[in-house]
Amino acid sequence: MNSCTCRGELAAGETLCQRCRSATLGRLRRIPALYRLLQPELHPSAGAPTYGRVGLVEAPLPVSLRVLTLRGPGGIVGVLEDWWTRMQASRAGSAPVISGTIEDRVRTAAARLAFHLDYIVTWPEAGALATAIRQLDEHALGIVCPADTRARGERLGPCPSETSTGVLCGAVLRYYPDSSPQAVTCPWCAVVYPPDSWADLKSSMDHDREEQEVLLAVG
User: Taking burial as the number of CB atoms within 10 A of a residue's CB, which of 58, 65, 159, 201 is the most buried?
Assistant: First the structure.
């Protein structure tokens, strides 16, 4: 191989250029944080308050399948551990010891790949590994921090409306400046919050957040 997958110039004995090496290292260091930041996008009701003050509605508990896939066994952790296993088999002829929660495993696998980057850049599969890590990073980053934040609107907080069974909706409410009419509509339970209710809505969210902080502090 005369050049990196990005067509960059390679140093003697290496299969990944310096630029791709640095980018891969940065992505490996960032992926555990992205994994944690995806959690609020998985279950919008997870961070919701323990009571509601808005009218009753019927709404399913929302789950993002995209986020569920990334945070599940075959997502981020699966990609990282697959490459960790292949790299270690190539280098040491052994299998990694895998244990802990999925978040622990993501952190460990990313750290081990980063630690062995000196070997990885000489490995014939380095280009494929760098591409897989880049795609994983871009996928997660596109959810956590989309390129066009205006397209997703300004995040306000969890919807405080309550279902008829007493379960809070908790879906993320977003404000879209260019929307017409200028009202905030819950994407899951369809409750509409017109501009004249925003002050009360904000007070409700602030109160709920303070209560959650108190509960966490004493828990």
Answer: 159
